[in-house]
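Discrete fold record:
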Amino acid sequence: MQSSTAILDMPPETPSLRQQAVLDAVLSLIVEGGDPLTMDAVARRASCSKETLYKWFGDRDGLLTATVRWQASRVHAGREPIDAIDAAVLRKELQNFAESWLAVIASPTSVALNRIAVAHAGSHKSNLGAIVLANGRFAIGERVKPVLEAGRAAGLLTFEDTEGAFRTFFGLVGRDIQIRLLLGDALPLDAAGIGRDAARAVEQFLALHGPANP
């Protein structure tokens, strides 16, 4: 358990193109139902040696951590400079996060990954559940919270607890979508629908946490 904690505490790094191909191979195996996921299976799929995998990622938990981070990197959050945030930038940041997060969780890759993580968390088969939490939801939250705090500092948002404000926004964006997808509901989530859902969540959040009326 100590080694897993150390892995979770490692700062994320941008993988090389070859490493990205390996991580995509892991994701493809997960989508195909490649569980239990072994280093041998990944090496075969990615056409590389196990020695290379251990050199790059340390162990299986390290490989899974890098894979979850790679998938989570598709969520656009906290990427714009926020030192001089205004209402337009705040709305754009929130909209980008909402749209990209919905697109990611609705993908077959994330659905498969989260299903395995939930199963492993319940059976204690691996640390995948903790890895997904730490490098998915919690890591994304830490990227969005500075945007919320910048909005508050600029007088665009009002809230006392940053974590509570983020959870409210997260809930407005996700609603019941993720659990329905995990349970096999075939939701029609196209780009237009995701855009509408994201815009509605942003409007609802701003109505809750926008500047107090005089």
About this structure: Residues 54 and 60 are 8 Å apart (CA to CA). The longest helix spans residues 128-153. The two ends are 53 Å apart (CA to CA).
